[in-house]
Fold this protein.
Amino acid sequence: MNKSNTTESVILFSGHYDWRKDFRLSLWLLLAASSYGAGQTWLRGNADADLYLRLAVGLFPLLPLLLYGRSWMRFVRSLDELQRRMQLEVWLLASLGTLMTGAVIAVLNTNGVPLGVFSHGLGIGGAFFIMMGLWTVGSIVAIRRYR
Amino acid sequence: MKNRLRELRADNNWSQAALADQLGVSRQTVNAIETGKYDPSLPLAFKLARLFEKPIEEIFDAEG
């Protein structure tokens, strides 16, 4: 019988961390982040470049991000029923938390509250950071609950 | 839902990890079922019944 994957295998310092599994899961995220960084640098230095080229460079990180989503789906499918339920709850918390944070930032911006780096909204980087932060916290709580 | 999983596992001298391995689930799942924090799906309940060679009603008590 195959051993089931667990959420702990992709959480640092959980005691069951497996860097190979984490690497397989996060490889496309690393590519998305690095292509986003490189793309933004290129866009800042090439403001006069062809519009379609600028759009292609700006939107390119969505491709590895999509593949990152596919890696996650495969990982979730490899989990057993309890672990899948935990992930459903944790992703719900992360998505709703990010949505609510974005809504609060939008309301504060609209009403002229100074928010520094968030003065133009949460942005893709901020949204991702908050989502992964909430996912990590939620996963740790879920792991402790069913330990 | 109450169950006799811990008792049946002990009768067979299996650790939670050993039972989990035979069921193809994580040790946490076995622990969560034993402590009543999680009720297994019907396919997993059938697997348990087959493994312990007992009817499902002898392992799980829906009234509990």
